[in-house]
Every structure is written in C-alpha cells, then in structure tokens.
Design goal:
Blueprint (H helix, E strand, L loop, with lengths): L5 H22 L2 H9 L3 H29 L2 H19 L5 H27 L8 H23 L5 H17 L10 H4 L15 H30 L5 H4 L1 H21 L1 H20 L3 H9 L1 H19 L5 H30 L4 E8 L2 E9 L12 H4 L7 E3 H5 L5 E4 L2 E4 H11 L6 E3 H8 L3 H22 L18
Antiparallel strand pairs: 1-2, 1-5, 3-6, 4-5
Helix pairs in contact: 1-5, 1-6, 1-7, 2-9, 3-5, 3-15, 4-5, 4-7, 6-11, 9-15, 9-20, 11-12, 11-14, 12-13, 12-14, 12-20, 14-15, 18-19
C-alpha cells in the first residue's frame, strides 16, 4: 500500500543513495586502475565496461521477469546485492583480465536488474509519482559521495575502491531486507515484455524509427566517456580524477531542475538535438588537453546526460499510445543501455588501442642473463622517493628541462634508469617525438604527453560520430505533441 509518510520517503532515499554509491565507487575509478596499474589493453578495458551493457541486455530475462512474478522485490534486491558484494571483494584480488572479467560479469548480471527494482520499490510505496524525483536525487548524491571518497581518501592507484564498493553492496543488501514489503505483482500484472519488444510495432512510424535509430547510435560515442574519462584525467595529470568527475553529477542535478522549462519552450526534439550536440562540444574540449576546457567539458555533463538519456525516455513515453508506454520505455532502455553501450565499449576500446602511449625497448637482468624487453612504457620523469628527475639521472643540470644533446653525448649504448637499461637509440627517438616544439629540449609536460595515449583523436572520433548523428536526427526527427497526462519517465543517474 503506497504511503505518504515522510519516514517511508526517507527510507527510500537511503535506498537510492546506497544503490548509486556502490556503483560509482568502482565503475568510475576502474578505468584508470586498469590502464595505469593493470596494464590492460583498450579492448580489455572495453570488455570490462561491456559487462554492464551485457547485464542490461541479459538480466531482465534472468531476473526481472522472475522477480516481478514470484518474489518480494526487497528480498530479491537483498540477495542480488550480497552476491554482487562477493564479486566486488574478489575483484580487488585480481590482476589479470579473465578472472576480473568473469567476476564483474556476474556482478553486472546481479546489479543491472536492481536499477529497475529500486524504482519499483519506490513507486509502489509512495502515493504520488511526482515525488519520485525527490527520492531519485539521492542516487546522484550517492554517486558524488562515492567519487569524492575515492578521490580524496582512497585514490585510483590501488584496488581499495573495490572494497569500498563491496562494502556498499553489503550495506545495500542488508538494508534491502528492511525496506517496505513489496510483494510480487504476479503473472497477469507484471506481464512478460521485459525487453519492450511489444514496442517494435512503433517502428512502423517513420518518426519513431528515426528516433530509435538515433538514440541507439548516439549511445555508441557517449560510451567513450565512461570507458576512457577517468584514465584520460589520470594521464593528463588532472588532480584526483574520480573526485573531479563528480562535477558532472553536480551539473546533472542543476540541469535536471531546469529541463522541464527547456521542454516546454523548445520541444523535446530540440532538447535531444542540443544534448547530442553537447557531446560534440564536450569531446572537442577534451581533445584540447587544456585543463580549464576539460573542466568545462565535465560541467557539460548535465546537458549531455539529461538532454539525451532522460529526454529519450520522456520522448518514448509521449510517443507511445496508451497501454504501450512501459514497453516503449523498456525497448529504449534495451537499445541505449544494452545494445548501444555494448557497441560503444567495443569501439571505444578499439579506438584507444590505435593511439597508445609511446613505447620503448630496454634490457633487464634476469637469472638467465639480460633479456630484451620491447613495448615498455616510457620511464617516469621523477621516480619514487627519494625523487630523481629524469634530466638529473641523464646528467643534465636542469631538473625541469632535458636537452637531446645531453643524451646524444652519453658514451654508453644503454642508459640505466631504475631496474631497466634503456636502449639509447630508442630513448633518443622517444625524446624526439616528445619534443613538440622542435627546439631540441623536452620539458616535463611534453614528456608527460608522450607517456600518455594520444588523446585528441581518441576524443575527436566519437565527437565526429556524435555530430553526424545529431545532424541526422535534426533533419529526420520529429517533435511530439505535449500530452495532457504523462507518466513519469526516469533513467538512472550517472
């Protein structure tokens, strides 16, 4: 029985806070962790992030359909989160791709259906659906708190964020059993169209077909941000990348408040067009490698996310005829969170591999003698404590600048830095490529860029794709007439 008691809303708000806290705690920092600490390839990183998209496609068939029919929702939430907690705890111990992929795949299968289940618990225990936004905003707050906790307390450099996420999952799992009793709907009420396939008949209308294809395609370039955003900030020396990324959610809260005004003034089609165009601008800002412009790109997230993801669900709700709204929503969620983001993670991983950091050859002493290792990352400008600058290690008397002439004059064929003996010729070649202005001197910022992925093209490719999709929807898309009565449409905050 729905209730308007403030205590019920408070309990539901805590539920939303924990739900998105545990997701953000691992999903955001794992990109930099895989890139910097585990040394995963772009494709491997893409597959790790694809677990959530696969979970969005598979879990409704395995969990959502059964949960709605046979089990109390709060109990299903509790069990799924406790299983996910075990996966997250064990993920912290993995340093190779296959076991980490397997654990996070199981976690995704458990977590993704809970996004719909927490909404179900909320809507079935409040008397006015319009009050849901006051509850849902605590999910965004949970996402922000997790990012700040990782950024300022734990950092992305260790596996500790997995323990934070696992602890959050345990808390959510146990808390779920205390939520208001939400019995199963039963076979007749819940229905069986968990993927929204009943909405396929809407594709006969050209305007809805253009809309469906556009939101599917725009999900592909959008995914680049989730796969590479944290690693990008880490490699470009942005301070506390995970905490910094919470600026995106702060802007999301603000834009969510003003979004109804935009919908009334300019219409849903134009809102979607602006959202798609915002991704183009965002990726251009990221590609500039300018820190102030990168911050501006993060702050655009409110328009990028709300004006695409949230607006798409509202559009589907308005476009669907009476009785088909739920199927239309499920269908759009399947296209965007499932198919689109899966294709996006694959393309993002592949693209990142085409623009890797510079690599170098070196010798390393082993029990069997010296071994030649190729494809090593460039040495750090400053090592561990006590810090030794790269110029000083190579005989330069300026710790902030390194002249290529100093390296050329070294008499040895190899240069010993730490545990490796770098091949002098390879090191000189790396320095030449790092010397962006061609003045024969490499500075630390230039060297740092050489150590990182070639980020501008990694961002320009999805930006270009988003521009094409934006143009196609602007030309072929159609607005929807405002409905006198409209059911609430919601998408998970990220």
């Amino acid at each position: 029985m729905a209730s308007d008691h403030p205590l019920i809303r408070t309990r539901l708000s805590v539920m939303m806070f924990l739900e998105f806290f545990l997701w953000s705690a691992w999903y955001v920092p794992v990109g930099a962790y895989m890139n910097d600490k585990l040394g995963f390839t772009g494709s491997q990183m893409g597959w790790i992030y694809a677990t959530m998209a696969l979970g969005a496609m598979i879990s409704p068939l395995l969990v959502g359909y059964v949960a709605d029919r046979f089990f109390s929702t709060q109990r299903v939430l509790g069990v799924l989160h406790l299983i996910g907690a075990v996966c997250l705890f064990y993920s912290a111990r993995q340093t190779t791709f296959a076991p980490l992929m397997a654990l996070l795949m199981v976690n995704a299968l458990c977590f993704m259906p809970t996004l719909a289940l927490v909404n179900s618990v909320a809507f079935r225990n409040i008397d006015d659906p319009d009050k849901f936004s006051r509850i849902a905003v605590w999910g965004t707050i949970g996402w922000i708190v997790a990012g700040l906790s990782v950024g300022f307390l734990l950092g992305e450099g260790t596996e500790s964020f997995f323990y934070l996420a696992g602890g959050g999952a345990v808390a959510m799992g146990l808390y779920s059993f205390s939520l208001p009793h939400t019995p199963p709907k039963g076979a007749e009420e819940s229905g069986g169209d968990v993927l929204g396939l009943g909405a396929l008949k809407l594709l006969r209308e050209p305007s809805f077909l253009v809309f469906a294809v556009s939101v599917l395609l725009i999900s592909i370039p959008l995914t680049f941000y989730f796969v590479w955003g944290n690693a990008f900030l880490a490699e470009t020396d942005s301070p506390r990348p995970t905490a910094l990324m919470t600026l995106a959610q702060c802007s999301e809260i603000v834009v969510m408040l003003v979004m109804p005004w935009f919908i009334v003034r300019i219409g849903l089609k134009n809102v979607l067009v602006i959202g798609m165009g915002a991704w183009v601008i965002r990726y251009l800002l990221f590609g500039s490698l300018s820190f102030p412009l990168i911050i501006l790109g993060l702050l655009l997230h409110g328009f990028c996310y709300c004006f695409v993801f949230v607006a798409a669900f509202i559009y589907a709700d308005k476009k669907a005829p009476p009785g088909m709204s739920a199927s239309a929503q499920s269908f759009i969620a399947f296209l965007m969170w499932g198919v689109g983001m899966f294709l996006g993670t694959m393309l993002a991983g592949f693209t990142g591999e085409q623009y890797p950091p510079q690599r170098i050859a070196a010798l390393k002493s082993t029990e069997k003698g010296e071994a030649l290792l190729s494809g090593l990352a460039l040495p750090e400008w400053s090592g561990e404590e006590p810090a030794v600058s790269l110029p000083e290690a190579l005989g330069s008397d300026d710790e902030n600048r390194l002249s290529l002439a100093v390296v050329r004059e070294l008499p040895e064929a190899t240069v010993t830095l730490g545990e490796f003996e770098y091949i002098k010729g390879d090191l000189l070649n790396a320095l030449h490529q790092a010397d962006a202005d061609g003045d024969g001197v490499v500075t630390r910022p230039e060297w740092r860029i050489a150590q990182a992925h070639r980020w501008p093209p990694i961002w320009y490719w999805p930006g270009g794709l988003a521009a094409v999709i934006c143009l196609l929807f602007w030309i072929g898309g159609r607005d929807v007439k405002p409905a006198s009565q409209q059911s609430a449409a919601h998408a998970p905050s990220r």
